[in-house]
Design a protein that fits this description.
There is one protein chain. The chain is mainly alpha-helical. 59% of the residues lie in helices and 5% in strands. Strands 4-3-5-1-6-7-2-8 form an 8-stranded mixed sheet, sandwiched between helices. α24 packs antiparallel against α25 and α28 runs antiparallel to α29. The chain is globular and about 95 Å long.
């Protein structure tokens, strides 16, 4: 198989394996076709006011000031006298969109929906707003449109400020909240003179929604412990005070208004959110007004063992915690509208101040609403599964469903409301468990198909390596072997059987891909079975003991990389072990200076995984130091190589220009940070230079000489200039330290080749990326090449996790992109953060490309070994994916698999990019000929 064909086939296979995880774990949990269910009794409230303080932490609101007072005195008085309070527990990812969907629609959105669009609805869903008679919303243009678009009819009215107002560099983001309160005040004033609007407001089942983004924006810009963030809480408290007074005056203090105050997510001390830290997942919930239980004094210790009650000085007031999705049925129950049909929230009865009958009927409605989803899910699965293969959920068979409902109605008829409530809660628990059961019904079947394809593909790659790149004793008769017709017929029969099976079950088109892909893969494996015969025949001549030791070491190395995904410190352990390689391999005696440089480089890089995650401790002085280090190392190299490899004048001018550019970028990073601290905004010139730097980062190196180290230096200067603009602290030192180690690795591999007795060694400084490869000098693979490939994979993982872990990737901290933009834009900001992650990848990839040239190997051979190692890691993580435990554990296990699969796909694509980046050259003008000695 030609290289390009193999590349395309490999890319296709890995894309399929990558996408399979979304069909297995990230499919939308929503079902449609259910009938909305509402409690038949009169609700306690005619209208509901929902206030969401975006990014507000529970402790920031509840913790009293040192003098014993509260920064939110009105809400504190509600907690202590007139309402019920607790902590709303959010789920990962702790972002605004999934948080609001959980609050208002009552279900936890799957991760793919967040990626598909912040404002759009990839899957339509029901919500409290949709079920209301009228809903008026004020706030962010990033949140309100998705609920207006999802509503049937034209009864959700949104009022938003321009998106440009969401500026992290603004002098005071609390003006966003002031805008909302001012708009609401104007709204009620106009309603007094607008009879149509007043008539609509006086109807029942209405919702008023205030989305307050100021706290979140101030938290990102100034951190949650800043005075701006804390003062914003006070502003919101005053705004809520005026809001309640205004609403009560308008409706004549009729006692028919319920109020809910909460947050969509919290925020870490360093101003990010997205992961599962308690500061992100614990949000405040305060409910008061019509139908809500007043504050309940308690004398006995409460059941919560987290210690927050003592910190918040609220141990004497009953605390009622809820899951975030539970707020949707609570709001629906208060104003008597149907619970959103997709809701999985459980009504928190302790918040209600109503009769036992009302509570029992509300809980019954909640149970039936969730049971309807279960029945729809079961019906869908039953219709697409052969009857003899269908296994129903045993706790809720059709007979047991009828029994539950019948018993609940009898208990309510006998006025045994507590028993009826308890039974409904049991039914909800079973129905939710059943929803998960049917949602994951095909998971084992799909998993087996993917694993079968995985094992087949990895086996095929190993056979290709042995066949084309290893020195085996070949049997001429085997080389001419034609695939037997029996094998072809067998594969055709298997394909037909699988296709018919999937057709009968009316399976989605993606199921055909996952189930049929292993057939051609295993056909290819069986077709190459002759290579196994060659391996067995060559076994007596191979150093079996040495082979066994290599494979054991690589196996331990792969396990170390797997563990490093959970514990970054394992990378430090690995780097310390790698630092000893020259001593263990005998290279130290032959190249002492380079061996010591390697050891020192590994130990310096080993410090980074032990440092705090990126963003926790911003230190712009370290970014400046990184700029100085980059300039120093570049200058040292240019001075040392001046006599060995003379530079053309234009190349010398380019390097000097690039070094000056690095200095400018280091200064811009410092200047931008200073400007934002002084609340002067992002200077336009800084922004223009930053975007030009980013746009040119992959083009400028193509102007330099293709000599090995000249091109690598140009790439290094170009990429690190961009990296400085995206850095906020110690991570800025990572690329120069990594590049230093990569430089030493290239040189020490040359010494390793000499030690192995490989002839034809050429001086590295005279090698050229663009030179035609002499096919006669391309050698076969040796055992030491497995070590080279493992080093590459290890450095790739280090490049990814060296300055952070998975939390630093999915946590939203915009501070890294402030040199480019400060107005909220999740996809541009996310793209810039991903580019920051990719830059160290490119540095390692370019080094690997150089080593392939220097060690006289074809680009395909080492890459195939890398592919096997990364696929073994991916298979390992596929088995570690779990659907139990906390949502964070589930999400993290899936993320690890996605990262490794993305890495395999990405390395394939990046190998092409780095080949172009190293070997191609753009000539802008003619140059005079130059002859090198």
């Amino acid at each position: 198989m030609r290289m390009i064909t193999f590349f395309l086939v490999g890319l296709t296979v890995h894309v399929v394996f990558f996408l399979s995880i979304f069909d297995i774990y990230f499919t939308s949990p929503l079902v449609h076709g259910m009938t909305p269910k509402a409690t038949p009794l009169t609700p306690p409230a005619s209208r509901l006011v929902l206030v969401v303080a975006d990014g507000l932490r529970a402790d920031s609101l509840f913790t009293p000031l040192p003098n014993g007072s509260s920064r939110a005195p009105y809400l504190r008085s509600i907690i202590e006298e007139w309402g019920t309070w607790g902590v709303s527990h959010t789920r990962v990812p702790t972002e605004s969109r999934p948080g609001h969907v959980a609050l208002i629609a009552g279900f936890y959105e799957d991760v793919s929906a967040v990626a598909k669009g912040w404002k759009e609805n990839p899957v339509e869903f029901d919500s409290v707003f949709n079920e209301s008679r009228h809903t008026w919303c004020w706030g962010s243009p990033d949140i309100l449109p998705m609920f207006a678009k999802g509503a049937t009819g034209d009864h959700v009215y949104t009022h938003t400020y321009p998106a440009m107002e969401e500026d992290f560099a603004s002098t005071d983001a609390s003006r966003l909240d002031s805008w909302v309160f001012t708009q609401v005040k104007s709204f009620f004033q106009s309603a007094k003179s607008n009879s149509t609007l007043k008539e609509s407001l006086l109807e029942d089942k209405n919702v008023l929604f205030l989305h307050l983004l100021g706290i979140d924006t101030n938290g990102h810009a100034h951190r949650p412990m800043s005075q701006e963030y804390l003062d914003n809480i006070g502003l919101v408290d005053r705004g809520v005070t005026e809001l309640v007074s205004m609403v009560e005056d308008f409706f004549g203090h009729d006692g028919r208004t319920a109020y809910v105050f909460t947050s969509d997510h919290g925020m870490t001390n360093w101003g990010s959110h997205g992961a599962g830290h308690p500061s992100e997942t614990l949000t405040p919930l305060v409910v008061w007004g019509a139908g809500v239980q007043n504050a309940q004094r308690v004398t006995e210790p409460q059941l919560y063992k987290d210690g927050y009650l003592q910190d918040w000085k609220l141990e004497h007031i009953r605390r009622v915690d809820v899951s975030q999705a539970d707020i949707a049925p609570l709001m629906a129950s208060l104003i008597g509208i149907p619970i959103p049909v997709n809701s999985v929230g459980v009504l928190p009865l302790l918040y209600l101040n109503n009769s036992d009958q009302f509570k029992a009927e509300s809980m019954y409605t909640n149970a039936i609403q969730i049971l309807e989803q279960f029945k729809m899910k079961m019906t869908q699965k039953k219709e697409t599964t052969l009857s003899f293969l269908f296994t129903p959920f045993q706790q809720l068979t059709e007979s047991k469903q009828a029994e539950f409902i019948h018993k609940a109605r009898i208990l309510m008829h006998l006025e045994k409301y507590e028993d009826a409530t308890s039974l409904c809660q049991s039914l909800i628990s079973n129905a939710l468990e059943g929803l998960v059961y049917y949602h994951t019904y095909d998971r084992f079947f799909l998993g087996c198909s993917v694993v079968l394809g995985f094992v087949g593909w990895t086996s095929y790659v190993v056979l290709v390596i042995l066949k084309t790149h290893a020195s085996l004793n070949r049997n001429p008769s085997v080389l001419k072997q034609i695939p037997s017709r029996t094998l072809v017929r067998l594969c055709i029969c298997v394909t037909v059987v699988i296709t018919l099976f999937l057709l009968i079950q009316r399976s989605p088109i993606t199921y055909y891909i996952y189930c049929l892909l292993p057939v051609p893969v295993w056909y290819s494996v069986l077709k190459e079975s002759g290579t196994l015969t060659d391996l067995i025949r060559s076994a007596p001549s191979l150093p079996l003991w040495k082979c066994f030791c290599y494979f054991v070491l690589v196996a331990f190395g792969i396990e170390l990389l797997v563990v490093s995904f959970f514990h970054r410190a394992m990378l430090t352990v690995g780097l310390v072990v790698l630092s000893l390689w020259p001593m263990l391999s005998g290279l130290f005696g032959k190249a002492k200076f380079r061996s010591l440089s390697w050891c020192l480089g590994c130990l310096c890089l080993a410090a980074f995984p032990l440092m705090p995650v990126v963003g926790r401790e911003p230190n712009i002085h370290l970014v400046t130091c990184a700029g100085v280090l980059i300039l120093f190392t570049s200058a040292c190299y240019l001075l040392s190589s001046h006599h060995r490899t003379p530079l053309h004048l234009s190349d010398r001018q380019q390097f000097v220009t690039q070094m000056l550019h690095v200095a400018v970028c280091a200064y811009i990073s410092s200047l931008t940070h200073s400007s934002l601290q002084q609340k002067q905004g992002l200077p336009l010139l800084n922004q223009i230079i930053s975007w030009i730097t980013l746009a040119s980062s992959m083009l400028v190196p193509l102007l330099s000489s293709t000599r090995l180290f000249h091109r690598l230096l140009s790439i290094f200067l170009s990429l690190t200039a961009t990296y400085l603009l995206l850095s906020t602290g110690s991570e800025a030192l990572f690329p120069p330290v990594l590049s230093w180690l990569m430089f030493v690795w290239i040189n020490i591999e040359q010494d390793a080749m000499i030690a192995q007795g490989v002839s034809g060694k050429q001086e590295l400084s005279t090698m050229d990326f663009s030179a035609n490869i002499d096919i006669t000098r391309i050698r076969q693979l040796k055992l030491d090449d497995i070590r080279r490939s493992y080093f590459f994979v290890f450095f790739i993982i280090t490049a990814f996790f060296g300055t952070g872990n998975i939390a630093s990737i999915n946590s939203f901290d915009p501070a890294s992109v402030y040199c480019f933009l400060t107005v909220f834009n999740p996809f541009i900001m996310g793209g810039l953060m991903m580019w920051k992650v990719i830059i160290p990848f490119i540095i390692v990839m370019c080094t690997f490309e150089t080593i392939q040239v220097a060690t006289q190997l074809s680009s395909r051979s080492l890459f195939l070994i890398v592919l096997v190692i990364s696929d073994l890691m991916a298979l390992h993580f596929f088995f570690l994916v779990q659907d139990y435990g906390s949502w964070l554990d589930i999400g993290t296990s899936i993320s690890h698999y996605v990262i490794v699969m993305s890495m395999a796909i990405f390395l394939m694509l990046l190998s092409v990019v780095t080949h172009i980046l190293t070997s191609r050259r753009i000539i802008l003008w003619r140059r005079s000929k130059m002859h090198f000695p």
